[in-house]
Amino acid sequence: MISLIKGFHDILPDQSLKWAFILDTARSCLSRFGFREIITPIMEKTELFQRGIGQTTDIVEKEMYTFSDLSGDSLSLRPEATAGILRSVVEHSLLRHEQSLKLFSIGPMFRRERPSKGRFRQFFQINAEVLGDNSPLVDAETILAATSILEDIGTQDFCVDVNSVGCKDCRNIYRAELRQFLKPSFGRLCPDCQRRFDTNPLRVLDCKEPECISICRNAPLISDWLDTACKDHFGQVVNALDSLGVNYRVEPRLVRGLDYYTRTAFEFVHSKLGRTKAIGGGGRYDSLISELGGPDVSGIGFGIGIERLSMNLPDEGPLYQRKIDIFVAIIGSDARYKCFEIVNQLRRAGLSVEARYSDMSLKAQMKLADRLGAQWVIMVGENELTQGQVTIRNMKTKEQFLVELGGIEQAVRGEKS
Ligand code: HAM
Hints:
Number of helices: 15
CATH class of the largest domain: Alpha Beta
Strand content: 15-25%
Low-confidence stretches: none
Oligomer: single chain
CATH architecture of the largest domain: 2-Layer Sandwich
Distance between the termini: 49 Å
Radius of gyration: 28 Å
CATH superfamily of the largest domain: Bira Bifunctional Protein, Domain 2
CATH topology of the largest domain: BirA Bifunctional Protein, domain 2
Number of domains: 2
Mean pLDDT: 93
Bound molecules: histidyl-adenosine monophosphate
Number of strands: 16
Largest sheet: 8 strands, mixed
């Protein structure tokens, strides 16, 4: 047997109803907020992610699936969606005629992380981006859109942590301050953080090594180094979140694993999964679009991990149950061919219908009908066919009655309406 690639996973039929429910709910929620879908390739030129996400992030440094294709181009499976969406927006000049765009995308991402519960090497994201509007109200509305998806899906026990990571200017000053703070403890930092000390000291704040966490406990906070404009922006975001009644916490230690963020950054944390396995995250990016060759406009967006959402929901729920309209139980092999015709006539009429054409006892067929979530069972044997009538059973009320062969659809629909 050839098995799955480590860290990849299958979505099995028993989970696919839940999966579809999550995607349908997200789509309908995002369309309420005015987002339209964009579908971009799962592979892009490596340079896009290096420039977009940042050369010194963990994702680009060690988590991308990168290879040279036969022409020698370096290509990478997308580790996230934002860079590809923005590449597409810039390439097709989508911001030329519209001042502001709201786009969403759903699909697989690839990161070569250490796999564990809720951490995969291929995982799916719901991703949304608002481009061309830098009002703090947009930040709050974007956070509300993500919150609404989680709520509509039925996610419980989550909170959104928000922070401002400042603009490039305040971050430059803060970076120097942070280095100053970390310098005396440099020898105790893990090898990765010793490297980050020079390249990207903010990443040290996000390190999961116990010694680095302990060193950072008293680190200076970015919130103390925000300039007036960034402070004011964040104040307005927080006020707007208050007015929307969003359940948030200001988390001054929140930094994100991607370099493009400016000002507002946020993460959705579930009480069972904790910060290291956030269900979603995002933030504002004020210079990414222009850095990728587009107009000088800002953006904000979020990504929600579908596996992590799915982990918090049962495989079957009242809103996503296995269900069919009719199960046709075949009694005796003589009725088989006629049943085959009935099944497919009813399907053509728009009903979902199932039957098993190989020999099976009535008891086993009734059990199967139950497992399939059949609303009705029609029992068809040779006798019924000669009389032109079949027995129909309402699986909820357990009532049974006879109907004419030509009246099955009407009986079922009559009951349905
Ligand atoms: P991110 O925080 O890297 O942000 O990922 C967003 C979400 O994807 C995470 O909160 C998590 O639920 C899920 N996720 C990430 N890595 C894994 C993994 N290895 N296994 C399972 N789930 C995972 C971004 O990707 C940004 N592009 C979001 C964004 C959009 N920011 C602005 N616009």
